[in-house]
Amino acid sequence: MGRTKLKPKLITVLKEGYSLNKFVSDLIAGIIVGIVALPLAIAFAIASGVKPEQGLYTAVVAGFIISCLSGSRVQIGGPTGAFIVIVYGI
């Protein structure tokens, strides 16, 4: 069975070219995901007993990391409701 290496999306996109139309589409999608993810990150911070600002910082930093290291152009990364059970225990 052959092994394939994970190529981050950023490298793939830069190799194939990145048009202005794709940038505008990605920008709009990023704004929409941010509108949903930021309040959810604040709620997770409050639920885990830390300050809401810490949830915002974590969401922003994690968002950049996910964007750089994700493996697909159609992948969306961010906080999800299933994590509240895990975060609550920490």
Summarize the entry for a quick read.
The chain has 90 residues and is mostly helical.
Structure description:
- By secondary structure, the chain is an all-alpha fold.
- It has one domain.
- The chain contains 4 helices and no strands.
- It has helices at 9-16, 20-47, 52-69, 83-89.
- Helix 2 (20-47) runs antiparallel to helix 3 (52-69).
- It is globular.
- The model has no long low-confidence stretch (mean pLDDT 78).
Could you name the key traits of this structure?
mainly alpha, single chain, 4 helices
Q: How many domain units?
A: 1
- Structure classification: mainly alpha
Strand content: under 5%
Total number of helices: 4
Low-confidence stretches: none
Could you report the average pLDDT, rounded to the nearest whole number? 78
What Rg is obtained from the alpha carbons, in whole angstroms?
16 Å
Q: Could you describe the largest sheet, including whether it forms a barrel?
A: none
Distance between the termini: 39 Å
User: How would you sum up the global shape?
Assistant: globular
Q: Residue share in helices?
A: 55-70%
By DSSP, the count of extended strands is: 0
What does the secondary structure layout of this molecule look like, with pairings?
Blueprint: H1 9-16, H2 20-47, H3 52-69, H4 83-89
